[in-house]
Amino acid sequence: KSIVVIDDAPDLAASVAVLLELEGYIACYAMTGAAGTDLVSRSSADAVLLDYMLPDMTGADVAIALRADPATRKVHIIMCTGTAEGTVRERFSDYHAFLAKPVAHADLMRSLDLAFAPH
């Protein structure tokens, strides 16, 4: 499974991508919403770990764009942010999981397992 991490903290984004690769995922990252949206499209990602506060747009804007594009409509979105869930939910609520930063490794892996579980 392929995962794109979209987070404006370069050390965090890179370390989460490495962690995911150690868990057997294909992972890459972007640090802006526009670059992340493009990367999700180009990589045919299965899931996105999405921060809310990005330099060019909000995570909600990214998620709305992903849902609007037929090529990325089905991607699993896991909001992974320090922003309060209520604030995120006001703008976008069609995500598979919400994880408050700092995120524990076990919680992240559990959210991915649930996102990829057969329905």
Properties at a glance:
119 residues, globular, 5 helices, 20% strand, alpha/beta, 5-stranded parallel sheet, 5 strands
Explained architecture:
This protein is α/β, with parallel strands linked by helices and 119 residues long. Strands 2-1-3-4-5 form a 5-stranded parallel beta sheet, with helices on both faces. Helix 1 links the parallel strand 1 and strand 2. Helix 2 packs parallel to helix 3. The model has no long low-confidence stretch (mean pLDDT 95).
Total DSSP E strands: 5
Order of secondary-structure elements: EHEHEHEHEH
What is the first-to-last residue Cα distance? 16 Å
User: β content, as a range?
Assistant: 15-25%
Looking across the biggest beta sheet, what order are the strands in? 2-1-3-4-5
Strand-pairing-aware structural class: alpha/beta
Q: Major sheet, described briefly? A: 5 strands, parallel
Low-confidence stretches: none
Amount of helix: 40-55%
Q: Report the mean per-residue pLDDT as an integer.
A: 95
Number of helices: 5
Q: Round the Cα radius of gyration to an integer and report it.
A: 13 Å
> Which geometry do the CA atoms define?
globular
